[in-house]
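Justification of computing resources. Each target in the renewal requires a structure prediction run like the one illustrated here; the chain below, 294 residues long, is used simply to show the kind of job we budget for.
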Amino acid sequence: MPATRLVDRGVIRVSGADARDFLQNIVTNEMDAVTPEHAGYGALLTPQGKIISDFLVVAVPEEERGGFLLDVPLLQVPDLMKRLKLYKLRAKVALDDLTEVATVVASSGGFSLPDDAGLIYADPRLPALGERAITDRSDVDTLVSAEPETYHARRIALGIPDGGRDFAYGDTFPHEALLDQLGGVSFKKGCYIGQEVVSRMQHRGTARTRIVPVVFTEGLVPEMGVEATAGSKMLGRIGSCAKGRGLAMLRLDRVADAMAAGERLEGGGVAFTLEKPDFIRFPFPGEPGFGAAA
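Resulting structure tokens:
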């Protein structure tokens, strides 16, 4: 059961009598679905609908003090704490940055973690990602047997975006980062920050830019961040890559035009093709029904 310490993740605790309602009113996911048995995936957005931070939400059992732990990108912890405090107002909520004492561990092969790994939860984005755990920093060395690169290679192969690598915080809509495909957005809950923009994109089908998995046909991978092109036209950018695969933020309408014209898709000069994983429900270029709704 190889496990990886995700050194680029932090932990925030949200506790108090109003913790669930507080999060329900500001984050994209449905908090009623978050229980000790089922973690959630969501984000806090700007009023303009762009992602400040995405995170996994873990409900702590009442016998262990209750509340919620947010499994957060490390570099987003300060900004997320600042925003949460801004929205707290008079709510009976306590906010604590636990990053100095807690850390995140993930299965690097999609398997279960040992029972003593800490607060264990299945990754809610995709079952194939396996389990994660929030554990004490002092205990983590006994759990870790794989490097972070092993985890990220599996994540990339499964087609799961990672903020900071595959999309930029503060400049990306949830649809672009596939939150709508990975259970990170509820279209049935009441108001939350940025909801109007997200709902409009959903109902009008205006998400033309998406992160999609790609396969590099020559076996090589380009550097992260290079332009994706077809002929002289820019399609987007390449994100994280490993073992001949990668994730790319692409304008899919431009990809469709390039494919129809027989042009080669390239990232940093390396040819690639799109690969559609089972969890993606919108049509890819070349599939029936592809159009503005992509």
